[in-house]
Amino acid sequence: MRKTPIDYQIVSESIKELNIPNLNCATIREIVKIVNSIENRTNDKFIRMEMGIPGLAPPEIGTKAEIEALKNGVASSYPMLGGITPLKEETSKFVKNFMDIDITTECCIPSVGSMQGGFATFLLASNLDTQKDTALFIDPGFSVQKLQFKVMGHKYTNFDVYNYRGKKLRGKLEEFLSKGNINSIIYSNPNNPTWICFTEEELQIIGELATKYDVIIIEDLAYFAMDFRVDMAQPGVAPFQPTVARYTSNYILLISSSKAFSYAGQRLGMICVSDALFCREYDNLKKRFGASSFGYTLIQRILYSLSSGTSHSAQYALAAMFKAANKGEFNFINEVKYYGERAAIMKKIFTNNGFNIVYDKDIDKELADGFYFTISYPGMDSGQLLEHLLYYGISAITLNTCGSERTEGLRACVSQVKPEQFEVLENRVKQFNSDFSTN
Predict the structure, then answer these.
(1) Residue 202 buriedness (CB in 10 A; 0-12 / 13-18 / 19+)
(2) Is the pLDDT of residue 75 over 70?
(3) What is the count of structural domains for the chain?
(4) The whole model's pTM is what?
(5) CA nearest neighbour of 196 among 335, 372, 399, 405
């Protein structure tokens, strides 16, 4: 039995109790359960890289506004389904200031986090046309979104984009879209888990094909403007957050308050639908939901049935943060740039000790340092690597669960790793490399 930083017997028992034959298939929450169990039994603290939990304090601008709203009694009344007016107005301005896109206030709708925003829009897009019964994920991506499709019982397909960057993307997308069964295309930008960022050329390709084949683009902007290679935090000044919205009117933007605004606990996001799509009529929606308008069905049928509105007080918090950002009084990127700094240090620790970065390039550019990065170790598949790392007090998730074709990699999240843990991480990674290196 190898001497490892975490008790070998306890780790083995905890893995066995999960009753999963191969950790390659374990979900994020299952890894969380294993690590919690090990930490509780051993009192040893893990380097936790499995879950994308924001690791920074929420901005006081938001918390003060929410406290004030609560003092004013908003908790005693239901919010309007479409959202409070201040939030809708500031969201419309925010999209214009930081994306250079015009969306009217009516088309900006709050949801219970981007998770609910995704669920609602996936459900809606899957019911627009009976001939188009399948969604397309440009992967790797957020694994829980595919779970949402399984819960809904709707179809999806996917491909790993890494070998189809730039002009190659058009041909790959045409392979799927030409079949006539795709209703929507879903991706995140910056990308979870690889942190690649689509270029304007790629977004133009996606937008043009969305119009050509009449499919809906659902653009997940959970990490809004967090490509730290570029400063996108100046309102009304280029460069702006890249978006497919410049190239098609068939789009939905999911803007989260969790990461860029460190407001995850209040579960609030924004669904921003293009004006043209919001007003569009679909015969199948009339049959399925009793209303033909895209926007009306989203709000009055789907979001109404899912949660009957979004946290009333939290809407005031996000409205205040958007307002301050719109005025140039709150640089929200300065608040979260520490993730990039942590990533640079952590990536170096791993690569100095025998590990490789799996998704290592953004086409021909160096990959940005951000909320996530991907790692592998020679001679191990992802399930083996994850299991071995658990004995060394390090947790992550496999890329397999993210739709990646790379069977050797793990996604590492930097948000829960504090600077004071870097020395511990380095010591554990050094020991891991010493124990497994074949050199």
Answers:
(1) buried
(2) yes
(3) 2
(4) 0.94
(5) 372
* Per-residue pLDDT, 111: 97
Query: Does residue 65 register a pLDDT over 70?
Result: yes
The answer, yes or no, to whether the previous bond of 239 is cis (omega within 30 of 0) is: yes
Mean pLDDT of 217-244: 96
Among 271, 304, 326, which residue terminates a domain?
326
- Strand residue runs (E) in 54-193: 108-111, 134-139, 155-160, 182-188
Q: Write the DSSP string, 390-430.
A: HHTTEE-EEGGGGT-S-TT-EEEE-TT--GGGHHHHHHHHH
DSSP 148-177: HHHHHT-EEEEEEGGGG-TTHHHHHHHHHH
User: Whole-angstrom Cα distance, residue 157 to residue 159?
Assistant: 7
Query: Are 20 and 112 found together in one domain?
Result: no
Q: Are residues 424 and 357 in the same domain?
A: yes
315 and 213, same structural domain?
A: yes
CATH classification at residue 22: 3.90.1150.100
Average pLDDT over residues 288-313: 96
Whether 131 is covered by a domain: the verdict is yes
